[in-house]
Amino acid sequence: MDALRTPHLLTVSDLTPGEMEGIFRTADSFLDLSSRTVKKVPSLRGKTVVNLFYEPSTRTRTSFEIAAKRLSADVINITTSQSSVVKGESLLDTVRTIEALGADGVVIRHPASGVPEWISRRVGCHVINAGDGLHEHPTQALLDLFTIQKRKGRLKGLRVAIVGDILHSRVARSNIRAMSLMGISVRLVGPPTLIPKDRGDWNAEVFHDLREGISDCDVVMALRLQLERATANYIPSLKEYAKFYGISPSVLQSARPDVLVLHPGPINRGIEIQDEEGFREHSGILDQVHFGVGIRMAVLYLLMAGGNKGEGNA
Ligand code: CP
């Protein structure tokens, strides 16, 4: 078993390259299950996983649920709009209540950066970050890299262009860190207003011209324009953004002939992705969803199967 040193998964920085490779190996072994009649193994029998989502989600929440159920864990989904959160219960009281009910792991999505880490220091169960504010979405980066590895056969030495709203994207932040760790060369492509000025230790080239930015790239990862975070105020118009930064069959002619196109979803169709049918054989977007189940099974298993509890201060 490729054990993880960390009791929680809060950021990709919690993982070494070797641990990421271990997650990919474990995910691979679990993916075989999806083609079997009985899609279950008993690895987490007797454990309880709680999905606590303070923001909407389709892919992440359902794939964590499917992953936990395939490992035979009991799964509870808490949608905050139908919980005591609407009566004013605090985040800490909510999580401590979940822990007292016997949860072994909490998968949390929250609009504020740093909340999963804050919780992990206060509870005694495993905490997995399913997306926090503008900070990170580590399992998304893991499934993105796993998809690239499955489709391209390797990671090291590839060139990836991440296109669009980098400024508001926790997916981009996790991917830039994870890709750099795994020896991928990263380019950031977008309008100046959507690329952070302070890029800290990011090892990434910046391009404002889409065709130039994706030229000779092995992978193009389009990001969602996060309209709920008022991203539309950062661009002249959606029409103009789509014209200059939309991924279409004609734009992809500037990339490598075998380019792989990814998008974390949900997609604003006609804006960041245009005419996917026209580049169907290059699209890995549904592969990302499929491989996400294997990655989340691997993460749950490697964190929770060993019997070690989280190491908070509760
Ligand atoms: N990629 C992603 O996080 O999608 P959801 O918001 O549907 O979970």
Structure in words:
This protein has helices spanning about 15-30, 60-70, 90-100, 115-120, 140-150, 170-180, 210-215, 240-245, 285-305, and strands at about 50-55, 75-80, 105-110, 125-130, 160-165, 185-190, 205, 220, 260. It is of the alpha/beta class. It folds into 2 domains: about 10-135 and about 290-305, Rossmann fold (3-Layer(aba) Sandwich), CATH 3.40.50.1370; about 140-290, Rossmann fold (3-Layer(aba) Sandwich). Helix 2 (about 60-70) crosses helix 9 and helix 5 crosses helix 9 (about 285-305). The protein is globular. About 45% of the residues are buried. The model has no long low-confidence stretch (mean pLDDT about 95). The structure holds phosphoric acid mono(formamide)ester. Phosphoric acid mono(formamide)ester binds next to helix 2.
Broad structural category: alpha/beta
Neighbour order of strands in the largest sheet: 7-6-5-8-9
* CATH superfamily grouping of the largest domain: Aspartate/ornithine carbamoyltransferase
**How is the main sheet built?**
5 strands, parallel
Beta-strand content: 5-15%
Shape, per Cα inertia axes: globular
The SSE order reads: HEHEHEHEHEHEEHEHEH
Number of strands: 9
Q: Into how many domains do the coordinates divide?
A: 2
Contiguous uncertain segments of 5+ residues:
none
In the CATH hierarchy, what is the architecture of the largest domain at level 2? 3-Layer(aba) Sandwich
Radius of gyration from the alpha-carbon trace, in angstroms = 19 Å
Mean pLDDT: 93
CATH class bucket of the largest domain: Alpha Beta
Task: Count helical runs.
Answer: 9
Ions, cofactors and other ligands present here are: phosphoric acid mono(formamide)ester
- How widely separated are the two ends? 28 Å
Fraction of helical residues: 25-40%
